[in-house]
User: Fold these one by one.
Assistant:
Number 1:
Amino acid sequence: MVSPSVTRGNPLGDGYLGRYRLDELLGSGGSAEVWRAHDTAADRTVALKMLAHTLTADPEYRQRFEREARAASLLHGPHVVAVHTYGELEGRLYIESEFVDGLDIEALLEWEGPMCPDAAVDLIAQIASALDEAHAAGLVHRDVKPQNIIVAPDDVAYLIDFGTALQDGQTAITQTGMLVGTPAYMAPERFEGAASPRSDIYSLACVLYECLTGQRPFRVRNPAQLMRAHLERTPEPASALAPAVPTALDQVIARGLAKQPAERYSTAGEFADAARAALTVPAPTAPPAVRGLGDQTTVALAAPVPAVDPMAAVQARSTESGMDARTVALSMNSNLGAVHTGSTRRWAFTAAGLMTAAIAIAIGAAWVTGRAAEPQPDQRTRMSAVATTKAPVRVTVPSAIDSSIEAPAAEPTAPPSDGTLIPAAPPRTADPRPPGPGGPGPGGDNRPGGDNHRGGPGDRRPHGHNSFQ
């Protein structure tokens, strides 16, 4: 690796490479270094990539560097850094390209955190157009990753570094058994030595996943385990890590990450279009929250059944069954349309049936009372109290009606023949306790909420420089 302290101070003795004045080292690696330079002949700022001095005599690295220059010069789209020229100066291979003042996606995520879905999809769509152009020219990038995507201050994204690109008909330069690319973003078939445009689509899906969640699809450090993850495992849905991600977008990413190339999208543009469309799919709507007793509904039934309060019936039933009142009320509200549009004849039969039952109960009660043994004089007052203070029984109308009515009192139990008194049942009253917070039901359900959402990449980066690397 070239030491920045050495190259910054006096890279080529006088700070020049031919007509280029080397102003700032933007990045360096084992095989090359990238400078912000000034072309004194054209009087413009450019990005200058130079093959490392120690590799100048290596035929394999020279051939790869020259391939990169030729491949990048074939592309002229708005999301590919334009190559102006390339060649050799003072024994150093170089590529002169457009200078882009921006940050790569990896740096953006470290600085700002995960992106909102709209911003992430917009960036990926721009890179998809660059890949479609490259694929149409017969190039497979083979190293699509966040570090190779530069985002300018105006949110225009650029795909860079075609150093590992492979053109149709070309033979691989790397030795057999060696992988070219970054394993964290490599498609399963890449580990077997194959590469196609759909391999780049897999890598682009990995980048979209990371833009949305701030994490790679497979967070494994061991190379062997990472390769196995790409070959066999399915990553956790992005929405599980970032709730703002629509589930429809999860499905798009899942197809982009399909293990078999034939199961992925046919082009990068198709992948981007599907991602855009997923953002417009309406999210599943949650059931409407049932509010407290202040939001009661009165259902008007045909005479002689009076209009009643359905919440009162819900409270009575929930007290006996332990059921959440709001759950039952929701089910009731969903059937209100049927109540209002049901047949009048059905309500008439129901009301008549209830009245007949009430009359039968009253006649039965009178018959039993008449046959009972005559109580002692001092018991008549208390027996009368038993008969007159017995609480009316609340009868719930079947779910088709979704309401409740008051039925006549059930027949009083006849006193035993030995004169034992029956204690009067206290009248049933409503639960004096106030409903829990948030409405009726145990403790309510008004939990605090909030948005878990990050903004897009607009107007948010520190001043920095990055470019073709």
Note: The domain at 1-99 is CATH 3.30.200.20 (Phosphorylase Kinase; domain 1).
Number 2:
Amino acid sequence: MWCSQAGAATVEPELAARLARETGPHRYPVILRLAQQPDPAQFAQKLQGVAQAQRGGRLLEALKAFNAPTQAPLLKELQTRRAEEVQPLDTVNAIAAHLGAADIRELAKRADIATIRYDVGLLAPSRRLMGDPCRPERPTPRQRLPKSCRNTAAAPATPATLARFDPALPASATLQLLGAPDAWRAGFTGKGVTVAVVDTGVDLMHPDLAGSFRGGAGDWFDVHGEQPHPGDRHGHGSQITGLVTGTGASGQTLGVAPQAKWIAARIYNDRNVGRLSQLHRIMGWLLDPDGKPGTADAPQIVLNAWGLGDRPGQCDTEFERDLQWLRAAGMHVVFAAGNGGPMADSSVSPANNAGALAVGALDGSGQLAMFSSRGSSACDARPYPDLLAPGELLQTTDRSAGALAVTTRGTGTSFAAAVVAGELALLVQAHPDMPLAQREALLRGAEGDARPPLARALGLSVRSQP
């Protein structure tokens, strides 16, 4: 990490190393974070008396008003330098751009820039990009297609065939373990609650997921501008969404909160890559999905199945301010704790940042799963993760093939985080005015209470029978 002169910008180590290796004309994706930043305490005061669902929009409006005069001089210079892909980042008062090495060195001399960081590319979870299993790219004469592909009677998903929540259907084994059927019978199904899924996308054609899409004009955000409608070429986002809102087209209810609604942002492009700056843009979208501050459309819960997993045990505060704003707007910010176990002190950012609710995984015997990250947070030394939930071989939705009710079993802390997001949806419905920290504390439970987690959190006395 170096500074060009007193009062100038800090060029962070990864970018500095790249610049030192420069051998020719090359443009680097960077994030230029401005020195002048808004005071969170002052902005929190502006939200007093504003309804929860409108806080995000009002907050984003105030952030943009603060940022505009501070960003204007830098935007002008970037235009002069012919920077490419220039994008203001509202939640961190920064600007993303593609610049040459000489321009970066000159910009580092500016006193109004605090840091210049390489705009790191993130890869989607390890899973092959999925095509249509019924239409293989290279069919062979002896190839056997899945049974679902040979079912000529299967109809595409339409409003008439979408699966709605049916309380008469059995719940999956995981949901029975949690006590979800008792919660549903008591009237807590997630109705009226919105969960935002930040991952690979969501398959809108899946019968178990289509009916719970909120469906507004701003409720799907592909930061890359490649997919105009909700979709998921990968599958991971559809899998975790199923554990939140999945209904029962497969014969059993799959989601903890089957009457909650989902909205979604797609992190990764068609090449399976996303960047830090694009995640900052998604954080801004979460505050105001439709771009209209007066509309009450902010989600109550954000489910994040991503992280800087290549640096376990380190604290990276790149998204710390984003998380502050989401919490200030009244959102539970749920993160997968990471799959860095059994290594000790294997927390990952931003799940280990203040403001994130990091969720680790339990195995089938109710113990901390071997793969689940653990120890203490590298950022604030709190016990890590914050919560534990089932995360091994959970039955859930998968990417559909021609609108069929395809299911799979998922393992990992992403799936445990999805379970907790669903549990929080029921608690938001039950206690809409309760502070965030108090709701989250209900999920931690009390020692010696043998009731299922949801029955305990909701104060229910009856245990579900399989």
Note: The CA atoms of residues 124 and 272 lie 6 Å apart.
Number 3:
Amino acid sequence: MLKEGARTLPEPQLTQTIADAALSYSHRNLPEDVEHLARLVILDNLGCAIRGAREPLTQFIGEEVFGRQIEAHDLVGGQLEGPLHSQAMLYAGAAHAIDFDDTLIPARSAHAGSAVVGAALPIGCKLGVSGGELIAAVVAGYETAARIGALLHPDHYLLGFHPTATVGVFGAAAAAGKLMKFDTAKMCATLGLAATQACGLKCTFGTMAKPYNAAHAASAGLLAARLVARGFTAPHAALEAENGYLCMFLGLPEAERKIEGPEVHRIRDNAFKFHAACHATHPMIEALRALMAEHTDLAGRIDRVDVSTNSLCLKTASIGEPKTALEGKFSFSHVAALALVGCDTTSDAAYSDAAIRDKTLAGLRAKVHTNDSEMDHFRTTVTISTCDGGRYEMNFDFRALMNDREAVSSRIETKFITNTANAIGNAQAHRLYADVLALAACPNIADVFCIPGQNS
């Protein structure tokens, strides 16, 4: 009999459906392209984390949580002594430190990789899971994040929430629960405990607090699974419950809530980053690079640059006059200026404090004008007007690049080696690249991800 004031929770529907889907994935049943994408996700995110290991925010977390400075080889493979969720925090913070990690578009454009891979690697290495099990868990994490993201109203982002944290935490929880071989009840409870830890604000953009959102998501998701494994209780219908996640975080109206079956793989809508700036600027960068390559004499004649894209992209990278290198990554005008002068926007070294102060770049920033258009966030039109009356236009649809498997694989290889060679040595970087690509045949992932130091 219910005590006075108590009430029954709704029958698990949304949460249970998503939990069941997460548990249904197995490596042997994944479509070939999905399995390939999952390996690229792991590879790309690992490269970002190794590169991010030397960033100040990673060192701050390492000093506070582990009491010492952090090297790249500390990030994975059980090199650190301490709670697994703290290891997940460190790894995910490093992976998102320079804002170079991928974006899962259906998950409200969350940087799902840092949360999902960040949670999966520590528990996977601890348990000694196979490469196939890790791949399936990453797919489960991405698909969970995508389905929960699809239940949110677009205004969730516009209101000021950062989906890397508010959605990514569920992906982290699902990946961990999958590796821990949970049943439906435990996975529902894990998602419930993740729901009450979902947090992250857009006002953090341009500061270290933004990558901390990813760090918290990975840590909270893994901790949720570990606590549930011990018997910790949490609501089994936290998504749809009264005063639950969808109610409090601006979910869609009940009549509009639809959940795709596990046969639909939204990891296919993942967008890798090939430039070390906010993803909203990437179609613009590609368009400007193509235009400047086609018309090599434009550099000295530019009078005005118009960038047309949708309002959400413009609001995401809206810092007009950046004061720091990190703010520069969230500035359409600054990123455009870098592209116009031929800076290597694929390297985070291009986004420096010196570049912010550079007078040539400052002059070009003043010439860049952004325009709200009806096009979707994958597309951009750039128009360069010259001092002698010329007008040059280029359109770019980022989906064309996303769907080019050969181009994506080639760019990720280059990006991975560039991100990792300085930290772990060129030979070790190439070895790790090959091992992750061959992950499906690995019986114990700790053998792959236990990265020795350069002096080992």
Note: The longest strand covers residues 302-309.
